[in-house]
Amino acid sequence: MTSGPAAASAASAVLAAAAASGVQRLWFNSGSELTSFQEAHAQARHHGQPTPELITCPHEHVALTAAMGETMVSGRPAMTAAHADLGLLHHGGAIHNAMWGDHPIMIMSGYPPTRAEARTSPVFWKQQRWDQGSIVRQYVKWDYKLSALDDAGLVVARGLQVALAPRPGPVYLAMPEEVGRYPVPADGPTPSAQMLGIPRLGPGDPGVVSEVARRLTTARRPVVVTDRVGVNPQAVALLAELADTLGVQVRASRYRMNLPDDNPWHTTDALDQFDVIVVLDHPVPWMPAVERPRDDAWIGWVGPDPIESRVPLYELRADARTTADPAAFLAAVLAEVGSAGPGDADSIRRRRQHPPAAGRARRSTDGGAAVSGVPTPALIAAALDRHLRPDDLLTWEVFDTTTVSRTKPGTLFEKGGSSLGWSVAAATGASIAAGGAHAVAVTGDGSYLFGSPDSCLWLQQQCDAPVVTVVVNNGGYRTGTTTLAAHYPGGLAVAEPTVLGGHLTPSPDFAAHARSQGCYGERVVAAADLAAALDRARTAVERDRVPAVLDVWVPEHLTGSMDPGRRARTPADEGNTDG
């Protein structure tokens, strides 16, 4: 516990315990039952007491996603506050991403007053739910409704303890309006999650460590399959050391920069090519309907939750599983193989002479020296690869970034979940947490709209954290166009000139929208203009301190159209051929 003046209200106790637990920011959405937080924050600043910075957010989805961006960079817990049940609902799919992204965030929302004298608006009856926590219970590790009888600071410390414990993730706290303003004792220590104790994982079961070490040294062709090693820079270095020391190939996702892209041990080969597979913190290392390991392959499974207990039905097999911290596990395996015998050394030497061809060719695709024609996802990736500096932050949610080189841990981020509208707000939170680091968010046109772009741009301006947003504009949703065509190749829906439910016709003018908010906006329709447009966007962000949006047109789903006239016409106009 930390000593100091205790808070004058439950809301003050909440903020004090949050600050003591390492929370630096409260991403705040206004609500009539949340005013106690505003006053508590002002009181703490006035008296020089520790308190999270209160950041005003105009939309709850943006607030929670920006909080994710903060935790990605800082590694610390974050906090959000939303207005009653409707504000909590406005978090939407971001709650799904918070869970699958392993973000230690305390999601808070208010609760309407229930005392008759305080119910001065009809909405207080409408906002009262039997069980508000049930809205998020499937997506959080812990939920609680604070009462006036509770020690508010201790409740927050407990919630953040759960959020930070492996595997980290979001927790939920409901704050009734009366409780926030309820007076608390004026003395006593401030509880924290650290005072309660944050458990740490070790290297795992020693038997599994030894077995993995033996298998990796004697295998004909071993592979490590990972998704989340890159959360810890130390684990990235240890994985690179393991790959180089033993000649072990690595099949890594792009959730993070799990292995530097200039490392020669990357592979994209199918899993049935390997006789030993070590799954290292990967929720879905393969999909049995698409590929599966050989029946005689030995599989070891390691991570904070090696049985993926968040998933109701999980059929992926393993010969050994152990709960472990990836960095500690890798260090333990390296220590074991340090005593490999001569026979093992010969096997390792043979493997080390032949890095995978995919690894050597990984960085060879640069989009061509002479770029011409219309932009495509591959050409956009190539332009980004040439444009980005090693320290730049990149968030993405639209196309494969394999050819966008990332060699520094903590510079590549993917949402982990499947709810769109994440990239721009996450880049904003990440840039703020990184002290204003240059951030580029890559998103599709549909996902850009999902992410409340006007709120994102406002937040960037308010916090002086401008981001370069690259909108890959293909005029619609893949799910409603190409997936539709795959499911119904001879159907009537795909035969329509404008595929209802899939094409976004007319296509919004994202560049004009950005300019209307005082930001830099530019439409790019020629591949040859990509490099200069990215440079102009960087200048706007770094020199002029305004957000930048590049609306990059790529061929439309199904039709392949790049015609601005087509995208501006309505479905009714599509059928009019008389001029």
Tell me what the structure shows:
It is a single chain. The chain is an alpha/beta fold. It has 23 helices and 17 strands. It has helices at 10-20, 35-46, 60-74, 84-90, 94-100, 123-126, 152-164, 177-180, 193-196, 206-218, 233-246, 326-337, 342-352, 357-361, 377-387, 423-433, 445-450, 453-462, 482-487, 510-516, 530-542, 564-568, 571-574; strands at 25-28, 53-56, 78-82, 105-111, 143-145, 171-176, 222-226, 249-252, 276-280, 298-303, 320-323, 393-396, 412-413, 439-444, 468-473, 520-524, 548-553. The strands form three sheets. Strands 2-1-3-4-6-5 form a six-stranded parallel β-sheet, sandwiched between helices. Strands 13-12-14-15-17-16 form a six-stranded parallel β-sheet, with helices on both faces. A five-stranded parallel β-sheet has the order 8-7-9-10-11, covered by helices on one side. Mean pLDDT is 90; it is low at 360-369 and 570-579.
- Give the low-confidence spans: 360-369, 570-579
Alpha-beta content class? alpha/beta
Described by strand count, sense and barrel closure, the largest sheet is: 6 strands, parallel
Helix content: 25-40%
- Strand fraction equals 5-15%
Shape: globular
Mean pLDDT: 90
Strand count = 17
Order of strands side by side in the largest beta sheet? 2-1-3-4-6-5
Number of helices: 23
Radius of gyration, in Å, reads: 26 Å
Task: Kindly report how far apart the N and C termini lie.
Answer: 76 Å
